[in-house]
């Protein structure tokens, strides 16, 4: 989306009169706002993976005598740990139980031994593992691993029962009170609700209802809250949940609805993430997205739940390395093009070739975005508050060409190289519009979990210029939730193909 356009906001978007009169975001931690305590370890639900890792490693060491050579222990250990981690066997669970893990653990041990046998047979056929060795090794390691994991889970269950974690329940007051009462009756679930976070108060008995940010902050500090149960729908509490996550609270999404049974005998699990018997009518689960990616469903006090993965790093080292390498190469190879564009603009438009504008990046931090100047706003207020520039007829041929070919975006490669932006990500917007869109479009703030980008999933789908902000928010968050390096490569390839058919920025 081009930043300097001066048309009215797109349909169904807030008008300028509805936005705050200021064009800057309040700084993080500014006086007047509430702040939760500094991030701490979540001891109740965020169990460290170290005990399970030790149990699996010990099981591998226990079968070392079975191997023809001790050096084969290393590749076997790496294979088992990688497969278990890829299957999320080290993630925190609501109700730890080794019986549910036995099939997955045994399957991955078998795969690891088969891979090791194939490797040995390929490198040294004379030392190939026999079938007896394979069966013995798999059986011994599976028994040792399941025994160790069982001991770890047993200790964790005792800890949960003896020292339940203080928790808050977020959602509609009546439903949240019902969930809290069920948790208090099930003392072995490891959670002890201490309050309800809701906008609507309820009459009668129950836990205190916290309706203000100050009350929530006080409850977190005084009770040492370490877990938050989010009862759907609770989308209006998104910013508050982000603060709770930063304070170190583990977030769990809870489905409090009981599946209904129709006359045909099929369940209505579509709304709670289950599978109905009539598969032809089951919608895709990924149509509705949470503010954060979620783990597989589990059970807390009989309620279906899943952990909201707030600790996920959306800007992985691989993405940053990819951005630096590609932007650096493009800056070097594209230097003649950059120079030609700058000279053409200097000759046709005069001084001021580079356009600088404040944008909002990752975690709400402002940065200065660079572009070639193709339009000169009347003043700073117009540059900060005008939505877009529709009057291309007033532009010179050089500016019109740069805009339609997207060559005016090339200086943003320097933003990528510096780390202000990424090659692929949600498009950055000005603070004035970020404030307004955050108030009117749920999920807009969640776009800032990742570095903003030159291009993105929303852009290659045509959501640029005067298009729906709601649609952009949905696709931007979908991209973040499903991020992978291969997805970035695909988006860049589709962007390059789109540039061959210039349609304007």
Q: Uncertain runs with pLDDT below 50, 5 residues or more?
A: 1-47, 259-294
Structural class: alpha/beta
How large, in whole angstroms, is the Cα Rg?
27 Å
Q: Which descriptor suits the 3D outline?
A: flat
Largest sheet: 7 strands, mixed
Total discrete domains: 3
- Count of extended strands: 11
- Calculate the mean pLDDT score and round it: 75
How much beta, percentage-wise?
5-15%
Helical coverage, percent range = 40-55%
- Strand order in the largest sheet: 3-2-1-4-5-7-6
- The number of helical elements comes to 16
Distance from first to last alpha carbon: 6 Å
H/E series: HHHHEHEEHEHEEEHHEEHHHEHEHHH
Q: Which descriptors apply to this entry?
A:
505 residues; alpha/beta; seven-stranded mixed beta sheet; 11 strands; flat
Question: What would your notes on this structure say?
Answer:
Helices cover 42% and strands 11% of the residues. It has 505 residues and is of the alpha/beta class. The strands form three sheets. A seven-stranded mixed beta sheet has the order 3-2-1-4-5-7-6. The chain has a two-stranded antiparallel ribbon with strand order 8-9. It has a two-stranded parallel sheet with strand order 10-11. The N and C termini lie close together (6 Å). Strand 4 (227-231), helix 7 (238-246) and strand 5 form a beta-alpha-beta unit.
